[in-house]
Design brief:
20 helices; disordered C terminus; two-stranded antiparallel sheet; mainly alpha; binds heme C
Length: 358
């Protein structure tokens, strides 16, 4: 009984409220249009003298709305309130050690933190009162990202990217964390147009299998680690496990990656007839014409490569039948030869410069 009356009232209210709001806003719009020129004349000198509307340095968003907008949707912004994190953290009894990376400015001694999530201050330091003109620092070095991404940092250190100083922010926008190119493949091809060589004619690339599907392939751990930190594939290396992860149909062994449970053959049927990747690669490399690798050359390269441990583990893995048919094995062999040659050349050059210095 008691409930009926308010409910009845609620049904009327929206209509009345709507009419009222409409009326009020009409009046406001009309009067503000009239008042606007006067208000502007009066307000602007006042604003300058009082400074009431000058953004405080700690209100980064007021002056950097574009950066704020990129960051606001990122996993960094939600590193604390992300339900995946928050629920696991709760279920573990809220250990403080998690907050080192999932909040900003965590103090182990007090258990307090400045802000939830990875905020502006995590990478730009504490607010500088007279910024601008005082300069906010920028921590853009890869080692710094690695303090919270230790496994990824470890993987990266193993690669040519580390020695060539191609760091996290060369590939990732530090605010959105997305890759610098909308299409990550294009980012790879853009830098590697010179070194792709025969690789660009590999059946996989021709079928549109993306660079990171092989080079950053990650077999998900059976049990997700409590802290969420597992390999992210940033060593960009190809191992026997890479091939096995997709080609489970041929080998009947291995750990399939999601999407490839039924093997590569099954997936091939779902791939588009004319994927965009080959065209893009051809545009960047200016190639596109068929290159013919003579079978004798392939066999020579394979024989040479068999001497190397890396490839022999690949063969021990049971890949021989699969691999002999593929240009990919040729590539492994070719690149190992090339790498050896490069090393020999580097050594020779190093010797030469040493001699010059003597
Ligand atoms: C994960 C680390 C990180 C976080 C979090 C971060 N930044 Fe940055 N910021 C960087 C790096 C690295 C650069 C250097 C520019 C680059 O590499 O593109 C940068 C550059 C900038 C620049 C100057 C150049 C530009 O890109 O416009 C501004 C302004 C800036 N950040 C503001 C902010 C604000 C505001 C926030 C919070 C909403 C924020 N940053 C959060 C790492 C970060
Ligand atoms: C009152 C406006 C204003 C506020 C508030 C503000 N910035 Fe800036 N910021 C600027 C301007 C203007 C520049 C460009 C300075 C230049 O190019 O000389 C700048 C530049 C930067 C840069 C590039 C390095 C530098 O200092 O030139 C970073 C990084 C940055 N801001 C981060 C931040 C962060 C983080 C916050 C919040 C803690 C913040 N800013 C708050 C106006 C502001
Ligand atoms: C204070 C710790 C901290 C720092 C510093 C930090 N990150 Fe992160 N980052 C995190 C956390 C935590 C997450 C995951 C958030 C979540 O999902 O709950 C993350 C997520 C990411 C992701 C997205 C992962 C995905 O699955 O999409 C990328 C990319 C990334 N960070 C790159 C960087 C880069 C580049 C830098 C350096 C400029 C950096 N981070 C610095 C803590 C940090
Ligand atoms: C900013 C340029 C740049 C981008 C972007 C880039 N690379 Fe590289 N990459 C390099 C340089 C420089 C080297 C080291 C010299 C070399 O081996 O060619 C390298 C080396 C490599 C190597 C050789 C293996 C090694 O450890 O030395 C592989 C494989 C590789 N990159 C794959 C990729 C993939 C896949 C992508 C896309 C996710 C990518 N790269 C994006 C510049 C880049
Ligand atoms: C050569 C380019 C390159 C470099 C260098 C690089 N990344 Fe990445 N990273 C990528 C690409 C490409 C992806 C996949 C993104 C996508 O699919 O949009 C990725 C994905 C990630 C992810 C998400 C992984 C996942 O499993 O969801 C994280 C976290 C990350 N990178 C962190 C880092 C950190 C930290 C560094 C520096 C130590 C770094 N990256 C250096 C290219 C790079
Ligand atoms: C079928 C899996 C596969 C795919 C897809 C793939 N690669 Fe590779 N890639 C390989 C193998 C195998 C090697 C040789 C590995 C070695 O030398 O250890 C290689 C080697 C490389 C190298 C080193 C070449 C050198 O001369 O040192 C680069 C750079 C590279 N790939 C870039 C890319 C790019 C860019 C893409 C996407 C357009 C891509 N790869 C797609 C399997 C793949
Ligand atoms: C050394 C820094 C660090 C610590 C400490 C840490 N994390 Fe993380 N955590 C990360 C980063 C970085 C990611 C992003 C995963 C990646 O590398 O792709 C992440 C991701 C996660 C994820 C997956 C979120 C998603 O969106 O996929 C969960 C869940 C998580 N962490 C929970 C925890 C818990 C619980 C703890 C404490 C036991 C903890 N983390 C401690 C750095 C850390
Ligand atoms: C991301 C999944 C994936 C990975 C990783 C992968 N492949 Fe494939 N591979 C495929 C698909 C899909 C096809 C197309 C299958 C078909 O057409 O029947 C294929 C086809 C092949 C073929 C037949 C090529 C042809 O000319 O028809 C060979 C050989 C091959 N892969 C070898 C390899 C080797 C060696 C590796 C490791 C370096 C590897 N693959 C890694 C998905 C993958």
């Amino acid at each position: 009984m008691k409930n009926n009356l308010p409910r009845h009232n609620r049904n009327i209210h929206p209509v009345l409220a709507g009419l009222l709001v409409g009326l009020i806003s009409m009046i406001l719009v009309v009067t503000s249009v009239w008042a606007a020129p006067q208000a502007a004349l009066q307000a602007s000198p006042q604003q300058q003298t009082t400074g009431d509307t000058t953004p405080e340095p700690d209100d980064c968003a007021a002056c950097h709305p574009d950066v704020e907008a990129q960051w606001a949707n990122s996993l960094h912004a939600h590193a604390y309130d992300d339900p995946l994190f928050f629920d696991r953290w709760k279920s573990l009894g809220e250990p403080g050690e998690c907050l080192v990376c999932h909040t900003t400015g965590y103090q182990a001694t007090t258990g307090e933190y400045a802000d939830p999530g990875v905020t502006c201050e995590a990478c730009h330091g504490e607010v500088i009162e007279n910024h601008p003109p005082a300069v906010m620092p920028i921590r853009s070095d890869t080692d710094y990202c690695g303090t919270c991404h230790p496994i990824t940092l470890g993987e990266w250190r193993l690669t040519g990217h580390a020695s060539a100083d191609v760091g996290c922010t060369d590939c990732h926008n530090p605010h959105s964390q997305h890759s610098r190119f909308d299409n990550p493949d294009e980012m790879c091809v853009n830098c590697h147009k010179e070194s792709l060589g025969e690789h660009q004619n590999d059946a996989h690339i021709q079928k549109g299998i993306r660079c990171i599907e092989c080079h950053a392939l990650v077999i998900p751990p059976d049990v997700p680690p409590a802290d969420g930190l597992s390999p992210t594939g940033h060593s960009f290396t190809i191992t026997p496990a890479t091939c096995v992860a997709c080609h489970t149909d041929i080998l009947h062994v291995g750990n399939p990656i999601p999407g490839y449970e039924a093997g590569a053959k099954a997936v091939a049927e779902t791939l588009p007839d004319s994927p965009a990747l080959p065209t893009m690669v051809a545009e960047y490399t200016g190639a596109g014409e068929e290159t013919n690798i003579a079978p004798e050359q392939q066999i020579q390269a394979l024989e040479a490569a068999l001497a190397s441990t890396r490839l022999s583990t690949l063969f021990q893995g049971g890949l021989i039948g699969l691999a002999l048919g593929g240009t990919t094995t040729y590539l492994v062999a070719r690149n190992q030869l090339q790498a050896r040659r490069d090393h020999e050349q580097e050594d020779a050059e190093a010797d030469a410069t040493e001699q010059n210095h003597d």
